[in-house]
């Protein structure tokens, strides 16, 4: 069900770029020979290609981002094609090439790393295709726009969240382990800047003890479990875990469970996934960070739709590309910290439903957490 509608004018837009407009999967109206009359081209809208990174590092990409982007494109009646590279960098490049060949005039990507992301953006730009970095900034990538959350703030909320949970547990001089996101994801760097901004002063003052601190390649949840298992073997007294997202948090929780430490050692997360929220309800995870992905998808879709129509849409601010030094026009949204008490906010916002969250053993916890 990835059907898009390629308008005649989209074909024309692609032809202007010297491309063959042959419409993507499911297109019925695309004819490369369809030349618009002057009047017919006024509603010109090119085709929008979106490449998501994978479906394992977080549930969000398939369950939230795809859904909300699709809804926004459908509502606007623009042609689109959303694909997922499934963590494969070569596949990512192939998808991009195909999208451009098929007449995409706007390309929105969530890179798998900045190097390969840049190669994709460079190729697109060379063909006159407008570019948007979605969620992850491609360093030195030169995308026309960047849409995301305030990712340093995400990290700050995680750091502050862990501090609150450790205070609730009244642990003296807790040893804190850090399970960071992928070293090739600029967001992971920003998250870490955020939480280390909170934790480092506590390490420095001796209030907390710095424990193992490691990145998880590609946010791989399975590797995260192995890494955390080693951390706990080397340092059995870990008293708090700063995990950069719900998937990594769940990996740590699995290991803590095996050692009967779940619920005793607070663990953080991010993304407000069903699994993360259930771990919070169960008392095994102390907090997550909710990012209203509908807002992110809507903002990115509006920019893409504007670009597809040949407009120059406005961003709300800029973000510094730390590698190129460029100020990238950006839209950054606000994240929200979620603890047991306000899991209901995520449900009330329509991000997860009570039906998917409050299954089986979680039903009673949902009632306790005031989820209607
Ligand atoms: C996103 C997170 C996500 C992680 C793993 C980050 O770039 O901002 O929401 O959990 O990637 O996919």
UniProtKB/TrEMBL annotation:
UniProt protein name: Substrate-binding domain-containing protein
Endpoints of the signal sequence: 1-23
Organism: Planomonospora alba
Alphabetical list of InterPro entries matching this protein: Bact_Solute-Bind_Prot2 (IPR050555), Peripla_BP_I (IPR028082), SBP_2_dom (IPR025997)
The Periplasmic binding protein domain, residue ranges: 48-312
Keyword Signal: yes
Keywords: Signal
Main localisation: other
Keyword Nucleus applies: no
Family matches, as PROSITE patterns: PROKAR_LIPOPROTEIN (PS51257)
Coiled-coil annotated spans: none
Subcellular location as annotated: Cell envelope
